[in-house]
Amino acid sequence: MNPTPWSIAYHSGMSSQSDFRACINTGAPAGVVAGLLTTQQVLAAIPRYIREGGRLFIDSGAFTAFRKAEPMDWKRVFQVYEFVINGTDGSPNVSIVAPDVVGNQAATFALWKEHRDKIRSWIDSGVRVIVPLQTGPLPADQLLHAAIELLGTDRFCAGIPSNEAAMSPAECSLLRHHDFHILGRVKLNDEVAAKVAALKANSPDANLTADANWLRSRTRKAGQLRQAMPMHMFESRRTQAVSHLLREEGYALGVEA
Q1: How far separated are the first and last CA of the chain, in Å rounded?
Q2: Which UniProt keywords are present, listed alphabetically (predicted)?
Q3: Domains and CATH numbers, the chain
Q4: Rounded distance, CA 30 to CA 20, Å?
Q5: Taking Cα atoms as reference points, which of 196, 124, 118, 190 lies closest to residue 155?
Q6: Mutual orientation of helices 140-151 and 105-114 as an angle, nearest 10°?
């Protein structure tokens, strides 16, 4: 029995080759950042993972860029998205995050307008496109409607930033949609639980997924386990350690972040 509201909870922080390999080994839903992936991962490891039934969330890295006050290399992000789309035949088991500017609704919508045809092509390919709804002058429901009008379809996932300042439960209660993703939070604190309840009130049959950096809180434990792992010809001790942790503490078992 799933003790959370999520149909899928992605283990983010798995961008390195050794950590992503652990997701391949265990079949755990993985979260990675587009700009941190290697060519080998994009062209070989990810297609293999998806062929074997894996479920992948690819973040653009916009939140990290915002926190570090760094510019976004959208060209690089889009290249990764399109290589992955081509390599996985547009699998619905791949979720990608549309371009956005954290905390800036107007700039986010301007990005959507600039890249409208590209975003629509991703949707048409079959992958799941998460469109982040930033707060601003437009209420959440009007922003969602504007996105549908712009893209000419509602066949995308509405992304809900998880921090309190991003979108309140009251705003979430305005939304009616078939697919939602909570960005950056799997564990249900009071605020996120209230947002989920608000979303489900108007869209009881909607698909709900979430991602969070599962590995961050387990870095020390992974390091300790690594030292105890045997040398292996085909697998690093780091991969063995993270694989062990995923089997013991992965989100699929209902363990909190």
Answers
A1: 18
A2: Plasmid
A3: 8-249 (3.20.20)
A4: 7
A5: 124
A6: 10
d(CA 7, CA 29) in angstroms, rounded, equals: 11
Structural tokens at position 73:
């290399």
Residue-wise pLDDT for 11-44, tens only, equals 999 999 999 999 999 999 999 999 999 999 999 9
Per-state percent for the chain, helix, strand, coil, to nearest 5: 50, 15, 35
Q: Per the structure block, which two tokens stand in for 156?
A: 């995308």
**DSSP-assigned beta bridge partners for residue 159:** 132, 181
Q: Which two structure tokens, joined as six digits, stand for 103?
A: 């905390």
Structure tokens at 175: 């939304």
For the record, the structure tokens of 226 come out as 């690594």
Number of H helices, E strands in the chain: 12, 8
